[in-house]
Design a protein that fits this description.
Layout: H1 20-30, H2 40-52, E1 56-59, E2 65-69, E3 81-86, E4 109-111, E5 114-116, H3 124-138, E6 147-152, H4 160-163, E7 174-177, E8 185-190, E9 192-203, E10 205-206, E11 211-219, E12 224-225, H5 237-251, E13 256-262, E14 268-269, E15 273-280, H6 284-301, E16 309-314, E17 324-325, H7 328-340, E18 344-348, E19 356-369, E20 377-388, H8 391-407, E21 411-418, H9 428-441, E22 446-450, H10 456-462, E23 467-470, E24 475-476, E25 484-486, H11 487-505
Parallel strand pairs: 3-6, 3-7, 7-23, 8-22
Antiparallel strand pairs: 1-2, 2-6, 4-5, 5-25, 9-20, 9-21, 10-17, 11-15, 11-16, 12-14, 13-15, 13-19, 18-19, 19-20, 24-25
Helix pairs in contact: 1-3, 5-7, 9-11
Length: 506
């Protein structure tokens, strides 16, 4: 047992949660910062943990961490198993909530059998997977062949950790990915994706005189995972606010755009957006009235977004007179272009009923002055995340979006493309897992394919001899504040993992 002094402070909310061996590790993760590309603190913590347990551990230049545990005595010839999860988490918080993900611990609560972070993301994606693998390394009573825990970095922001793995890293027979979010299902396939970064240079003019500056904001949206939740009828802050601006310019009067900002990461549905505009003082009352009408319609259109707020606030001072702005003749065609680009669910899977095959998210988006080019240029920078279960359809979608951006006068760069993971329903590993699940829970599991990116696609391409499967506990609201994990499903996941490792060693 590790001394409590060697661990970060444990939040009392974890007292009494079972299995304690798993929750203790997750509690430690909640106390450590682990944003994508900044996993150094958790890597250092786990290297010290492994050293105290006399486990072989190493970290590479990409911040991946590999910890090895020898086989149980007498099981040295059993299949070698990799338990894989990613160290980083999506860092999202409610607007105005005082939380610094680079410093502050996550503060979970228990509610109706779920562990949740009410105002931030929880990091159960994929901290629970990390905790399960650490528990397997720690459990002296567990029967198993040689175990390797592979903890990758930067999964949520480009999968650079998995991409950087050396070719001799995964010397094993089986890889169990612990990064899916629906207990009772085995995942055997996932979507591939890529990021497209668009840059539009825009001719700007001095802000019109005799105008007032107003900020229009759209807040309080539900958001969610840009793959798993893309099919849900939720408001997309960037697109909805652009639509509102176009309606306002038509219904009230053309106005100049001073700035626009929405979303923060491409793998989360944007929950907020804001635009600063310059319009005649005489039209401000009409603007307020029209926004109230738009808000009412949006609430009816998006019932899942019950906290939706569309409002405006005057901006004090006259500084905007000296600012660059986009006249309606410039920003309206840009808004039309952005709204015409492919978005949302674009195709349903013909092979897996109820599963999205191809989609695209749009986030983040910023329209700001470009001071490096003087006062006569503003820029729109926007990102798009196309996904598909079929790599060739993802590539066709990427090509189409890129061409449309270029035709509209922008530049487009494609980054961080990753392959999908093709399902193998005849996998021997899948059949074995199904038998073990049936034996443990007296019920059959489900087979699923997920419309999100798992590192399994990269592993399958780079290490084709590996048998792959993914499973995990029930997690809801990943990539958004209020993320939660069902406590009982973590216990079931741990029971299954122990039983599976013992069966693989038999």
């Amino acid at each position: 047992m590790e001394s409590s002094a060697s661990l970060p402070p444990i939040d009392p909310v974890f007292s009494g949660l079972e299995p304690a061996i798993v929750w203790r590790h997750f509690a430690a993760l909640c106390a450590l910062p682990r944003p994508s590309k900044a996993e150094h603190a958790v890597v250092r913590h786990l290297l010290r943990w492994a050293e105290r347990r006399k486990l072989t551990a190493r970290s590479d230049s990409a911040r991946n961490l590999i910890i090895e545990k020898p086989a149980s005595p007498g099981y040295e010839h059993a299949p070698k198993v990799i338990l894989q999860a990613h160290l980083d988490m999506v860092c999202q918080k409610e607007e105005g909530f005082p939380h610094d993900f680079a410093r502050d611990p996550i503060r979970p609560e228990i509610e109706n059998g779920w562990l949740l972070a009410r105002h931030t993301t929880l990091g159960a994606d994929n901290g629970i997977g990390v905790a399960l693998a650490l528990a397997a390394l720690e459990d002296a009573a567990l029967t198993h062949g040689a175990l390797t825990a592979l903890f990758t970095a930067d999964e949520e922001a480009g999968m650079s950790g998995a991409r950087a793995l050396a070719s001799d890293t995964l010397s094993a027979d089986i890889l169990l990915n612990l990064d899916t979010e629906e207990w009772g299902a085995f995942y055997l396939g996932c979507a591939g994706g890529a990021e497209i970064h668009a840059d539009f240079p825009l001719p700007a003019l001095p802000c019109p005189e005799e105008t007032c500056a107003v900020e229009i904001s759209l807040r309080g949206l539900t958001g969610g995972h840009s793959g798993i939740d893309i099919h849900r009828p939720r408001a997309h802050a960037i697109r909805v606010l652009l639509e509102c601006l176009l309606e306002l310019a038509q219904d009230i009067a053309p106005f100049a755009l001073l700035s626009f900002s929405g979303g923060s990461v491409s793998n989360a549905l944007p929950r907020a957006a804001a635009a600063k505009i310059a319009l005649s003082e005489t039209r401000r009352a009409a603007l307020t009235t029209r926004l109230s009408e738009q808000e009412k319609k949006l609430r009816e259109r998006f019932p899942e977004d019950s906290k939706l707020r569309l409002s405006c606030a005057p901006q004090p001072g006259t500084e905007h007179f000296r600012a660059a702005s986009l006249p309606a003749s410039v920003w309206r065609p840009l808004a039309d272009t952005l709204l015409r680009l492919p978005f949302g669910v674009l195709a349903a899977s013909a092979d897996f009923p109820g599963v999205v095959e191809t989609s695209c998210n749009f986030a983040p988006c910023q329209i700001m002055p470009a001071p490096e080019n003087g006062t006569h240029i503003m820029r729109c920078r926007a990102a798009f995340l196309p996904r598909s279960l079929h790599d060739e359809r993802r590539d066709a979608l990427v090509k189409s979006i890129r061409e449309q951006i270029v035709q509209a006068g922008g530049a487009a760069i494609v980054k961080d493309a990753y392959p999908g993971w093709r399902p193998d329903p005849n996998s021997r590993l899948l059949a074995l897992c199904e038998r073990v699940y049936q034996d443990v829970f007296s019920a059959p599991p489900r087979r699923e394919v997920i419309h999100a990116g798992l590192e399994c696609g990269l592993f399958a391409r780079a290490f084709p001899s590996l048998a792959l499967l993914s499973f995990g506990p029930d997690i809801m609201g990943a990539h958004a504040p209020g993320e939660r994990v069902r406590v009982a499903s973590v216990e079931m996941c741990w029971r299954f993992l122990r039983a599976l490792l013992a069966r693989l060693a038999a």
